[in-house]
């Protein structure tokens, strides 16, 4: 099977930076789109940024110019560099990926979620 393991969350002051990482592991054939979502208390989960396997990326307007998504396809890892953080960026951040994997000599394709990592922006 496949797992997505996130790291890099924490507490940071407004204006600070954090870098999130998410590594996919398992019997992976390929990884397609990799994305970061976030969910603040009392709010719906929202898409923050996405990166396709051919390098295209897009962002929600509220993080454009502050956050950068990147990926290392050789390591099946996606990163989210977050700069100029604001209190409203406080949320649990989730990694999401569409993965093709093998099981019993067959190939399957499905989406996976990471466990989530807390980002808190506060003085």
Overview of the structural elements:
This protein has 123 residues and is mainly β. Helix content is 0%, strand content 63%. Strand 5 and strand 6 (57-59) form a beta hairpin. The protein is elongated. The protein starts with a strand and ends with a strand.
Which features would summarize this protein structure in a list?
about 120 residues, mainly beta, seven-stranded mixed beta sheet, four-stranded antiparallel beta sheet, 11 strands, about 0% helix
What does the average pLDDT come to? 96
DSSP strand tally: 11
> Could you tell me the radius of gyration in angstroms?
15 Å
First-last Cα distance: 41 Å
The secondary-structure class comes to mainly beta
> What fraction of the residues are assigned to beta strands by DSSP?
over 45%
> Main β-sheet: number of strands, strand sense, barrel status?
7 strands, mixed
Tell me, what's the shape?
Answer: elongated
What is the element layout, followed by pairings?
Elements: E1 2-7, E2 10-12, E3 18-26, E4 28-39, E5 46-51, E6 57-59, E7 67-72, E8 77-82, E9 91-103, E10 106-113, E11 117-121
Parallel strand pairs: 2-11
Antiparallel strand pairs: 1-3, 3-8, 4-5, 4-9, 5-6, 7-8, 9-10, 9-11
